[in-house]
């Protein structure tokens, strides 16, 4: 697996992933009143954190995008 996520992209994914994981449980936003939106938020958060940790995004590979220096 070749790395295709750069440092800035990695940090943004990590921050957004943590926000998506934590927000449904600590905020009182109306959007998280539904169980479905909580599940979607948690799944997206896990995907964002996982791709940041692995420095690899399968969607980037399919689209031919690379944000890290060669």
UniProtKB/TrEMBL annotation:
The UniProt entry, under InterPro entries, shows:
YgaP-like_TM
Which residues are listed as membrane-spanning?
12-32, 38-57
Keyword field: Membrane, Plasmid, Transmembrane, Transmembrane helix
What are the residue boundaries of the Inner membrane protein YgaP-like transmembrane domain, all occurrences included? 1-69
Q: Write down what this protein is called.
A: Membrane protein
Organism taxonomic ancestry: Bacteria, Pseudomonadati, Pseudomonadota, Alphaproteobacteria, Rhodobacterales
